[in-house]
UniProtKB/TrEMBL annotation:
InterPro entries: Ester_Hydrolysis_Enzymes, SGNH_hydro, SGNH_hydro_sf. This is SGNH hydrolase-type esterase domain-containing protein. The keyword Hydrolase does not apply. Residues 1-21 form the signal peptide. Residues 75-258 form the SGNH hydrolase-type esterase domain. Pfam families: Lipase_GDSL_2. Gene3D superfamilies: SGNH hydrolase.
Length: 314
């Protein structure tokens, strides 16, 4: 087995389970004997843990929960789709390929109605160029597949200054409210699932960065409300993801998508194990190959919006 090193998670100072989060410096490899998960066992009672999870290195292939199938539903926009991950010899699988490799110690099934890339099980509920509200309006069929873990990363397009992309407006507080509504729908339709809500990655676009930063900071509060109400909802911190791992100030490079997979894998290991239950019902009925029909709905809208944003920047 090999360790997964997230290069962007350096110098974290926030606390989890009463211990300081720690990651080795970029480009180095830490001793697994000093893995913080071993040094400080994860608390299993909501009163002893925070609702915000931060990256910690975990050995690839460690089971998240032995004997329990993980039916994962990635939900989001083009970053979840894996947009541009088929460039420069990439496989088109976004972060999902690395996450699947990391989860070799678990039985994993990906839920969702959309697929793309080269994976046999490359499913998700994500659409290029779409906002939180659009995702919420179209995610129901995927939620009916009853995932037991949902990986939600949405809001990048809501922060775009171009109104042809951010169709409901790009006010961070209003977008956070829409995100809360999407989380509530997931809780209602999948009450047995654990929902991981991303504090989305940043951007190097000077026109989009301020709103993105404000939106990132609002997500823990939105999650905390649901967490305090007894729901299995946790925020996961992607704010340490480096802008240098972005291809176009929005989408990760191929290496960046690999790093994102490691982030999600780390966060899965931070879930209290008694929250992870056997999935409800049968696995989704699939054709032989998931990746044969790309699920890149909304690409033209997204790219035209990006072009307009670039023109605004000139």
């Amino acid at each position: 087995m090999h360790r997964r090193l997230v290069l962007g998670a350096v110098g974290l100072s926030a606390l989890f389970d009463g211990t300081a989060a720690h990651s080795p410096p970029a480009g180095t490899t830490s001793d697994p004997r000093h893995d913080s998960r071993s040094a400080a066992p994860i608390a299993r009672a909501p009163g002893n843990m925070t609702s915000v999870l931060r990256y910690r290195e975990v050995e690839a292939g460690e089971a998240v929960k032995s004997g329990t199938k993980l039916r994962l539903l990635p939900v989001g926009d083009s970053i979840t789709v894996g947009f541009l991950s088929d460039s420069d010899g990439g496989d088109g699988d976004g972060y999902r390929r690395r996450l699947e490799d990391d989860l070799s110690g678990d039985e994993v099934v990906f839920a969702g109605t959309e697929s793309s890339g080269s994976m046999n099980d490359g499913y998700y509920a994500a659409w290029n160029g779409r906002t939180i509200q659009w995702i919420s309006d179209h995610v129901d069929e995927s939620l009916e597949q009853r995932p037991n873990i949902i990986l939600l990363a949405a809001g990048t397009n809501d922060m775009n200054p171009n109104p042809s992309v951010s169709r409901e407006g790009n006010d961070p507080a209003e977008a956070a409210d829409r995100l809360g509504g999407l989380i509530d729908k997931m809780v209602q339709e999948c009450p047995d699932a654990t929902i991981l809500v991303a504090m989305i990655i940043g951007t190097c676009s000077e026109h989009q960065a301020p709103a993105t930063t404000e939106f990132q900071q609002l997500i823990p509060g939105i999650v905390q409300e649901r967490y305090d109400a007894g729901h299995h909802v946790l925020a996961v911190d992607f704010t340490t993801f480096r802008n240098s791992d972005l291809r176009d100030c929005i989408h990760p490079t191929n290496q960046g998508y690999t790093i994102m997979g490691d982030y999600w894998y780390s966060f899965l290991h931070r879930i209290p194990t008694d929250w992870i239950r056997e999935p409800v019902g049968l696995d989704p009925d699939r054709p032989d190959s998931a990746g044969s029909t790309p699920g890149y709905d909304g690409t033209f809208v997204f790219m035209s919006g990006m072009m307009a944003s670039f023109l605004l920047a000139l």
